Amino acid sequence: MASEEAxxxxxxxxxxxxxxxxxxxWRPTSGLSLSALSAGLDVGFGxxxxxxxxxxxxxxxxxxxxxxxxVGIAYGVGFILVVLGRSELYTEHTTLAVLPVLDGQAxxxxxxxxxxxxxxxxxxxxTVFGGLIVxxxxxxxxxxxxxxxxxxxVYTDQPVVGMLGAGVLAGWLMGLLSxxxxxxxxxxxxxxxxxxxxxxIGMAHLPHCIAGTVEVVAGVLVSPELGPTVFGRFLxxxxxxxxxxxxxxxxxxxxxxxxxxxxxxxDFREE
Length: 271
Fold this sequence. Notes:
InterPro entries: Aquaporin-like, For/NO2_transpt. The protein is mainly α. It has one domain (about 1-265): Glycerol uptake facilitator protein, CATH 1.20.1080. It has helices at about 1-25, 30-40, 45-55, 65-85, 90-95, 100, 110-140, 145-155, 160-185, 185-205, 210-220, 230-260, 265-270. Helix 1 packs across helix 9 and helix 9 (about 160-185) packs across helix 12 (about 230-260). The two termini are about 20 Å apart. Mean pLDDT is about 90; it is low at about 1-10.
């Protein structure tokens, strides 16, 4: 009985995700672009608060447990604004929008269109916010340049294999976030899910291609030691890792698990 109930719940979540994915896949380009731009901007509030905390605590104390915990918690703020505000974030759609394609209800071309629009819009928004941090933060004495560079180096100093693997884990967690948010039955539950998972990504220093763009772009603008090549390396590795993590470890596995568990409620409804 318990397994049947769990399967039914899995089917319900899958149905919700597929319906949401179809809605996004057929959304007009103008609406997608503006929503993606908004998400890229909104997610930047997390890195901004991280910089404020590092500045307040002193960059020399970044290894202390309390500071690390506060920085990780602050990282989740931007994701709360994006997910609860229902803006279009690329990593969420590496899971969400793949499901209708796997279910045969949408084409790969339609998926590529959505990914491209959301990804570009997110990058533009994140880049703009990174610039705002550099201009506004030091001018009002809430974020020191050294804190900005410290945030960027968390990612730029990672080795290739390490960053790619960490990117997979970040995409995996973001895919689970999307799945669990669909299962949550209240705004409070959704808020808790988003904050826990996003904070875990922040505390573990897992590279998220959009939120990390805010940090790395700001670091490149502040430090002459960081340049466009460093940013390009980060963006490539984090994007590939996030996409693989969300698509393979969540979308494919979750879809396969639900569909191949036996006759589903959808099968009986169709009969």
